[in-house]
Amino acid sequence: MKEIKSHLKKYETHSARADLYVYFYEKAHSLLKEGGIFGVISSNTFLKTDYGKSLRSFIQNKTEIQKLLDLGETQFFDGATTYPVILFYKKVELVKQNHLIHSFSALQIDPKNFIEEISSNWDVVSQNDLDSTTWIFENEDTMKIIKKIQKNSISLIEFCGSPLMGIKTGLNDAFIINENTKNTLIQKNSKNIQIIKPFYKGTNLERWNTPKPDKYLIYLNDDHQIEDFPELKKHLEPFKEKLQNRAGPQEWWQLQQPQKGYVPLIESKKIMYPDISNRPRFSLDNAQNYFSNSCYFIPSDDKFLLCLLNSDLCKWYIFIVSRGMRGGYVSFMNVYVEKIPIKKPDIEQMKQITILSSDIIECKNYFNEIKYNFLDLLLTSNLEKISNKLNNFWLLSFTEFIIELKKHSSKKNINLDEWRDSFEKSKKQLLEFLNQNSQIEEKINHVIYDIYNISIDDQKIIKAKLSYVKQST
Q: Which DSSP category does 213 fall into?
């Protein structure tokens, strides 16, 4: 790509981060006669990404789209992850105002029954109604709901500014440490406590609030002198060669992107969330935790915003406007989250939200307390690691739990009676809290629907879409 960059800049569809396929759309257009039709199979990423905006604008203004099939995460080729779209356009001098696009959209279809799968469920969309900032191909009922939530709303970026990205280390193995290493470094020199920060990755974040992290970040930027922290220098030295090979002007012992200007905001109350997820996982943090560049944060503890972002309405909206990924995951990057429509609640609605948000955070705190007390108990059984199944032990029967425990414990003899009571008691409490959590979330959903004037019929459409997304993942 470097060799042809100067040539690619001549294209109207050029964008610094565009994939090469983008330019084939424009090149094909230049080869067509007026009225000629071009058909192509390509990645669907240009439909909703920032770098695809110039291509969307080009197609929208210089062609009439005949058919568009967005096949989501359907995989046609073994060993290659693709997100295919099939598009046909006609080259025209002027796009007719009333031109209609026939579109088909599915999260996943069976490639072996391709013809049968695409034989129904087509929508018709006016090309004139497309917005080049992101293309949405949905049926008329869905578009009405989108317009309803956008009416008399402001975007999230207007409401609270653009979300901010977390810290890029450039080499996680060097800068991210566990509890034991943290304790050792601080015991050797209490001064190191100034530099070692509790740290999350995107995969650690949970809805509403997140338990205390079990990993820590060595936070060194150009304000520091490495000679002032000899123990930290010694810890980093085995990684020196790899650290020197990172991009950027930083010293070998400094973080690659420390986000120094954000530190006062990072150490304030904030709403954090991962950049990729299969559901909204917006988490309130009051504990000055740091986090990786797989996380974003909003420097606010606004309870209404937290409830909106974790609501079914927000999930439905994000799954429509965002770029889909394999396994039912979508991107929560700024280009999508910034557009979430924010509508101000009235006084009574705000009272309800305030009470419900406190209730659900309290419920989550109790849940985490019981869960992690039990997991701490597990660690006394000389576990090699806490597996995914053990981490979600309340989903297991006691027999399944014991089988999993034996699999990962170095103890030869495990006393069943010792574990039965604590397992059954913890499991019962957690399931009760999960049920309570679901009830509170449902109440929050209803308040959010009320704020946005979402009717019962609208809610049925939203639930059907969310149910389809869940079944397809």
A: P
CATH number for position 30 = 3.40.50.150
**Contact call for residues 280 and 300 (beta carbons, < 8 A):** no
Length of the chain: 473
Domain limits for position 280:
164-342
Residue 403 φ then ψ, to 5°: -60, -45
Name the 3-class secondary structure at 192: helix
In eight-state DSSP terms, residue 302 is -
Mark whether 85 and 204 lie in a shared domain.
Answer: no
Per-residue pLDDT of the chain (473 residues; tens, 9 = 90+): 566 777 888 899 998 888 899 999 999 999 999 999 999 999 998 998 888 999 999 999 999 999 999 988 888 877 777 889 999 999 999 999 999 999 998 877 788 888 888 888 898 989 988 887 788 888 889 999 999 999 999 999 999 999 999 999 999 999 999 999 999 999 999 999 999 999 999 999 999 988 888 899 999 999 999 999 999 999 999 999 999 999 999 999 999 999 999 999 999 999 999 999 999 999 999 999 999 999 999 999 999 999 999 999 999 999 988 887 777 788 999 989 999 999 999 999 999 999 999 999 999 999 999 999 999 888 877 777 788 999 999 999 999 999 998 888 877 777 788 899 999 999 999 999 999 999 999 999 999 999 999 999 999 999 988 886 654 44
Strand order in the sheet with 63-70: 37-43, 84-91, 63-70, 100-105, 123-126
User: How far out from the chain centre does Cα 165 lie?
Assistant: 12
Q: Are residues 290 and 394 in the same domain?
A: no
Is 130 in the same domain as 7? Answer: yes
Has residue 107 been placed in a domain?
yes
Q: Which residue, of 283, 310, 342, is where some domain finishes? A: 342
DSSP state of 278: S
- CB neighbours of 425 closer than 8 A, spacing ≥ 6? none
The answer to whether 283 touches 208, Cβ cutoff 8 Å, is yes
What is the DSSP code string of 347-413?
Answer: HHHHHHHHHHHHHHHHHHHHHHHHHHHHHHHHHTT-BS---HHHHTGGGS-HHHHHHHHHHHB--S-
Cα 314 from chain centre: 13
Quick check: helix, strand or coil at residue 242? helix
Q: Tell me which residue of 49, 39, 42 sits closest to 330, measured CA to CA.
A: 49
